[in-house]
């Protein structure tokens, strides 16, 4: 097995273990999707790109390049955060736990930028945000938060129905809920009806389940 092939196999394994897609790795590292594809198929990145990848994945360069676990210290092993897993999120403050009160989803801490507080998780049930790398069956991790910047991906409830994930845009006249899939319709809410839109939280990451 060539060093290049071994590198690609290690990169694929780490991404699968952490539930990170090519799209997510591209977004988090700032590297072009076609470059990530090349690295998963035998090419070895230059040093500055390797450093970006290892920071996002929370692993050592020794392991990524050589599979050397002997040099991995306790600090190289990512801390795990247990996030409350919700079955349903609906209006009027209803938050239903999945599989009982102790349902949680474990995720490496670095994927939520070290923020352990006010997190919640739920399973994605449609493809409305697929072009943002958020796929059906993945687990969305969000932070309870009411304030958003225009363009943020948010968990929102419209007209007291179940929650949806959308990009949120604000203007002087409207609130726009934009999907990342042309098969779904953009929703525009006049500001005078803004009280019909509940912003639940800001999406931090979605993790594909394998």
Walk me through what this model shows.
The protein is of the alpha+beta class. The chain folds into 2 domains: 73 residues, 434 Repressor (Amino-terminal Domain), CATH 1.10.260.40; 128 residues, Umud Fragment, subunit A. The two termini are 26 Å apart.
Structure described in brief:
By secondary structure, the protein is of the alpha+beta class. It has helices at residues 3-18, 22-29, 33-39, 47-57, 61-66; strands at 80-89, 95-97, 104-108, 119-123, 139-144, 153-158, 163-170, 174-178, 187-190, 197-207. The protein folds into 2 domains: 3-75, lambda repressor-like DNA-binding domains (434 Repressor (Amino-terminal Domain), Orthogonal Bundle), CATH 1.10.260; 80-207, Ribbon (Umud Fragment, subunit A).
Shape: elongated
Write out the CATH superfamily name of the largest domain: Umud Fragment, subunit A
- Radius of gyration, in Å, reads 19 Å
Count of discrete domains: 2
CATH topology of the largest domain: Umud Fragment, subunit A
The stretches of 5 or more residues where confidence is low (pLDDT under 50) are: none
Class from helix and strand fractions: alpha+beta
Helix and strand topology:
Elements: H1 3-18, H2 22-29, H3 33-39, H4 47-57, H5 61-66, E1 80-89, E2 95-97, E3 104-108, E4 119-123, E5 139-144, E6 153-158, E7 163-170, E8 174-178, E9 187-190, E10 197-207
Parallel strand pairs: 1-4
Antiparallel strand pairs: 1-2, 1-3, 4-5, 5-10, 6-7, 6-10, 7-8, 8-9
